[in-house]
């Protein structure tokens, strides 16, 4: 059994989730020179909107901090040095590692192995995964020259670094500057990619929610008392959306490498606004939940999101996203598609308005549902049919509510 | 095609070769009227007489020394060492004389001898009747080391070994003698030395073995096929010269390699195969190379349960391959 000599351990930026490539040091929980126990929380890092306290892999003394709070480091980059008293040195935990075969193939064909879904142990990218990705690419060569993957889309839009004159000119004396937080950076990256890759089209339908509004008024107090969570309008909308997605799978799709993938599961993401940024926790298999179940799931996700406790799984695998833009009084919004999904719907503010009903004019509780969609995947016919069904479902809601 | 045991195919190979070539002489302990402890030379004394089937004293150094002398004087001696464990007194003759004569004499002399020896465990042979020593001899330039895995190859390789102009060590797994049966063509034929064979093509994991363990590897491959893992099984057939090219070609396809042998894992044939593949096919490797072999412990235990732990079987190999396939 080979034994390693006790020596300094380089503690590295952990991989906080699949396809996460960097993280930011939030704060050090131990200071330089301080003793740290094995598995004792050492540093808080954040990445992909989720933060985590990372424990020390060894017992020892925190000898050197290589990345101060606020620093962004790639996964696998050393963050600090720990001198173990007499324990053997643990190997530096690296980031995603690829076998020689994977690296070679990836280099040969100019493919980014990080972009290949891994099927090996622990999600490792295997040689066959790369071969399959290549076969897929070969089977459907891109009509447009592929964008070089190494370019950081966010950086592209920023003024070049090393141009202090330009940067200073853009900044007045009373202005304040703050580096992009990881969350803002991620949002910047994702929205930019989404806007660049998916031709967004937009549509809006009016829905008469008078029946639902009346019915909800009667039951909401009892519901809160019984269930411990408020009965908002959003669960009804998710309920209608999830069931309609089942009926029109094209709406529950994503475009990957010239293939439209109809997602087998209906996992509905819900945008939750935070102090700095927005996060989209996912209600998995939303089509299998009742309104009551959705209300509970929603409450739980929003609560976790606000407390910063969402795990990667909580925000992964969404197939369609709903945003309650109406919470701020908006009556129309144009959402940017999320996570390569083909469509995203917003629920706007419910407002009493005079509308024509039959031969007369009545005050009805009206709401707009807005929908952005990826025109590469969907056309007006899919979207029209989808919105008509959602509208029909919501307008049919009346006492007694099926919760 | 007739079905024969591993032992019968070796017996037939000896008989066919001797009938063809009068310079072939057998030497060994109890190989005459007794026919050898395992019966590999049964009936040959009666057919070819005491000048060609020579019972020797229990002195392996002398047996091999005499054979070397005969080989240098126009004979083709085939020596039987009763158990490979007993070959050690003859190592000086094999390593310092037989292996080096061609070099030392500047090609004036050469040494066409074959040394047959049963090796391997699983027969409750304990310390003195269970060893595998191929790696030791595979480290000696000037020798050839052959370990057939089935009756067909056993006879073909024996013919090739006897025809070879240089010393060949021919190791026969004693547990295979009567247990392994297979189709063996009548009459002499040759299986090349230094050429591995893909015994079972596959695409997921390359399993390299030789001797009896090759049979375990094939059984493991069958079992794994039912679980969707497609093994390519390569029989080295000779461990010296080692056919690296066949193994590398397979690893280029599968990216994953397991080498299994009954000999100790540490510094075994598998170590050389692993190193050669790492040198030649690094950029095709998709998983760490794995080796299976006996623990680095002094001897095969006599206790049957412990003996089983010491030995490899199909389940061992299947477990290891499965882990590799899932890596």
Account of the 3D structure:
The complex is a heterodimer of chains A (403) and B (327). Chain A has 403 residues and is an alpha+beta fold. Chain A has 3 domains: 9-83, OB fold (Dihydrolipoamide Acetyltransferase, E2P) (Beta Barrel); 97-140, Dihydrolipoamide Transferase; 185-395, 2-Layer Sandwich (Chloramphenicol Acetyltransferase). Mean pLDDT of chain A is 85; it is low at 1-5, 87-93 and 141-150. In chain A, 31% of the residues are buried. In chain A, α7 crosses α8 (291-306). Chain A is built from 9 helices and 19 strands. In chain A, 28% of the residues lie in helices and 25% in strands. In chain A, strands 9, 12, 15, 16, 17, 18 and 19 form a 7-stranded mixed beta sheet that branches. In chain A, a hairpin with a 2-residue loop joins β4 and β5 (50-55). Chain B is α/β, with parallel strands linked by helices. Chain B has 2 domains: 3-183, 3-Layer(aba) Sandwich (Rossmann fold), CATH 3.40.50.970; 197-326, Rossmann fold, CATH 3.40.50.920. Helix content of chain B is 38%, strand content 20%. Chain B contains 13 helices and 14 strands. In chain B, strands 3-2-4-5-7-6-12 form a 7-stranded mixed beta sheet, with helices on both faces. The relative contact order of chain B is 0.12. The mean pLDDT of chain B is 97.
Number of helices of chain B: 13
Please state the average pLDDT score of chain A: 85
Give helix and strand order of chain A, one letter per element, not per position.
Answer: EEEEEEEEHHHHHEHHEEEEEEHEEEEH
Q: Which class of the largest domain in chain B in CATH terms? A: Alpha Beta
> How many E-type strands of chain A?
19
Radius of gyration of CA atoms of chain B, rounded to a whole number: 19 Å
- Strand proportion of chain A: 15-25%
Q: For the terminal residues of chain A, how far apart are their CA atoms?
A: 62 Å
By CATH reckoning, the class of the largest domain in chain A would read Alpha Beta
Overall mean confidence score, pLDDT of chain B: 97
Overall tally of structural domains of chain A: 3
Tell me the Rg of chain A in angstroms: 25 Å
Q: Which stretches of chain B are low in confidence, meaning pLDDT under 50 for 5 or more residues running? A: none
Task: Examine the coordinates and then state which fold CATH places here, giving the name of the CATH topology of the largest domain in chain A.
Answer: Chloramphenicol Acetyltransferase
Shape of chain A: globular
